[in-house]
Amino acid sequence: MLEFADAQYTDRKTLFVEVILPLAIAKNYTYRVPFELNNIIEVGKRVVVQFGKSKLYTAIVTAITEHPPEKYEAKYLLEILDDRPVVTDRQLQFWKWLGEYYMCYDGEVMNAALPSALKLASETKIALNKEFEYDRAALHDKEYLIVEALDIQPELTISDISKLLSQKTVMPILKELFEKNIINISEEVSDRYKPRKRTFLTLNPAYQGQDNLKELFGILEKRAPKQADAVLAYIKLARHQKAISKSELIEESGAGAASINSLIEKEVFIAEEKNVSRLYFEEEDLDANFELSDQQQAALVSIKQQFEQKDVVLLHGVTSSGKTQIYIRLIEQMIAQGKQVLYLLPEIALTTHIIERLRQYFGSSIGVYHSRFNDNERVEVWQKVLNNEYKVVLGARSSVFLPFVDLGLIIVDEEHETSYKQFDPAPRYNARDAAIFLANMHQGKVLLGSATPSFESYFNARTHKYGLAELTERYGGVHLPVIEVVSIAEETKKKTIQSHFTSVLMTDIQQALTNKEQVILFQNRRGYAPVLLCRICAYTPKCINCDVSLTYHKHSGKLHCHYCGYKEDTPSICPACGSTHLEYRGFGTEKVEDELTLLLPDARITRMDLDTTRSRNSLQNILNDLEEKKIDILVGTQMVAKGLDFAGVTVIGIINADSLLKYPDYRANERSYQLLAQVSGRAGRRGKQGKVVIQTYDPAHRVIKQVIENDYSDLYFTEMEERRGFHYPPFYRIINLDVKHKNSDILYNQATYLSNELRKHFGEERVVGPQVPLVSRIRNYYIQSIMLKFEKDGVSINKVKTTIRDIITQFQTTKLSKGSIVQPDVDPY
């Protein structure tokens, strides 16, 4: 026996694991694996590790090796949390690519990718040792207090005990209790994900025979009639469904929980607790018998043919041309092949609307994933995707992080939308571009869909890097809406404008209301008034943390900062000069809604913006009310431009187009066209031709004419000439570096130094700045931006990024960098 044990000991392997910690650190850390865990350690599992003096973290294993780290002694990992990997090898490769491409750390990618319930919290907990008997009379006063408190509350933290005893140092007392074996002390990781459980009932086989059941009824009807009602209700439910939950039986029978519990105690019912889904989709009859139009069928055939040669195809179809129906046919094809599909949407808002249209085709095989799901729901979707239970996932940009097993197709709907870009925190990724890489890893295909494609995608299609399919007609032969441009200046001069509504728009709104039709009004600002101004000294209240004016919100009666969330009371007297002549300038959605209520008191008016859709179901409620024609006029921000499809909407009003057209950005014309065309596309989508009224101070603006004529090509070719000349995408790549510091003078020196170092390596023409952005201070940090432009041909972007990283690292080793933050943003727009 001794010889065998010695042989076993000499065969032991010492394993080490490289892990990703959920921290912004440049390198992954290595830990030693306790021998007893050697057989269960796997790449992709979560492990508990200590990092620093006392902090515990959940980390993801990325590699297993027998080689210890060279520069430091590896600590032991403390625990393995999973029976099987929660992150796949493909996901780890995907995370690695995201970190390298978007110039961020693996830990930052992990933080974005994993649902928060899979990232566990560390805290020291105290609990009674229930397996040990002791004499409480032998405890001194403070020990007795702790034990009594643990009788009432099973677990206490060290800070709880400090408060209980009114003293800072409690560890010596806890140490004594621990040595007496009275308590357990552990720095433990608490898993926040708890599966949702439900109690299901089955009738005891002893009562399933007719004679026995009759005898049971005879007894219960005399002694416990409510229990008899419960058994009868169970039999009725059992005719139509296999699984009957306790809550369903209580509701169906009206017998109450006490009666059901008595039947369980009597073993008439056998109770079994099962994990159930929190998600609200149930099996439905599938009905996919819609007919594609000739043009849709031709586009579908074209897409399939091009997928044989190309990995990405752009579907360029006018608004309401029936792109979703083509998506459905492609999804059906993928499901038939046993593959998974990811259907990306730019807004959380759209998932709830479109799921209703897709669930009738795919039933419970479709999952939904976005940030408004709670922690438990997100983990549940994660696990169902990992188990290949969901064949279709519909979600916002974070859905690219899900653990797909065999991804055959990714659909990126409204691919031009800026919502696909993550701005803060890192990784500052674009889900559309990330989806293309992800699909390539799975040998899958990508379909990009839009009525107004991004210039990058359209450029790639025209240069044959992507395939291109087009839909030039609306589904069902419905005409594109009539667009009328109205001059705000002219109507103001003639005094025919009422508040912010021209006579043309008011007439069309009133006509729509008379015809029992619906109206959508678009204003690209939320709040009541963007600026509060003193008429005497021109004072404007500004945020104390950011370099922006505060916006007045009537519903709260306060001034709000839309960057950091700061709020303050609205002054009645100017703080600068003491004047009472304060007035509101400009207007947002809240003011449009308010003034429209005065002009049209009988109309049912609702507002849809960030302020009215914060709670989880508020947006869905608004969309349901619009669908059911409980809303006559919907006032909204950009949300109303994205994918809404309602038969009753015939009039669209764009209150002020100039706020889009005058924005100082090289993409302003592209974005303005996209937004105006998308908002216009909400009108007259089914059966009846709609009308769009665009109010502007500049009716002759080129982009407005291109929108009226639906001339995307003219916009594209005009803008591309300018972009080529000024070295902008798609001909050049852009990397932005934002340098931040709390002192503006120090920041100027830091940004100047960094830009000079960049010029030494890349030349004068490729480095622009440093320059102050439109908003020069956010959350008390001043900002300076450096823009780098690199040709797409003849330049290795990987080498460029390595050089930039080296320059930033070298800068951060100097004394000058103290207190600074440098944020790279690849493909920033």
TrEMBL record:
It comes from the Bacteria. InterPro entries: DEAD/DEAH_box_helicase_dom, Helicase_ATP-bd, Helicase_C-like, P-loop_NTPase, PriA, PriA_3primeBD, PriA_3primeBD_sf, PriA_C. GO terms for molecular function: 3'-5' DNA helicase activity; ATP binding; ATP hydrolysis activity; DNA binding; zinc ion binding. One of its GO terms (biological process) is DNA replication initiation. SMART domains: DEXDc (SM00487), HELICc (SM00490). It holds the Pfam family PriA_3primeBD. PROSITE patterns: HELICASE_ATP_BIND_1, HELICASE_CTER. GO terms for cellular component: primosome complex. It catalyses: ATP + H2O = ADP + phosphate + H(+); Couples ATP hydrolysis with the unwinding of duplex DNA by translocating in the 3'-5' direction. Its cofactor is Zn(2+). It is an enzyme of class 5 (isomerase). Binds 2 zinc ions per subunit. Zn(2+) 2 binds at C543, C546, C561, C564. Keywords: ATP-binding, DNA replication, DNA-binding, Helicase, Hydrolase, Isomerase, Metal-binding, Nucleotide-binding, Primosome, Zinc. Its EC number is 5.6.2.4. The keyword Lipid biosynthesis does not apply. Residues 304-471 form the Helicase ATP-binding domain. Component of the replication restart primosome. Initiates the restart of stalled replication forks, which reloads the replicative helicase on sites other than the origin of replication. Recognizes and binds to abandoned replication forks and remodels them to uncover a helicase loading site. Promotes assembly of the primosome at these replication forks. HAMAP family: PriA (MF_00983). PANTHER family: PRIMOSOMAL PROTEIN N. Belongs to the helicase family. PriA subfamily. This is Replication restart protein PriA. It comes from Mucilaginibacter corticis.
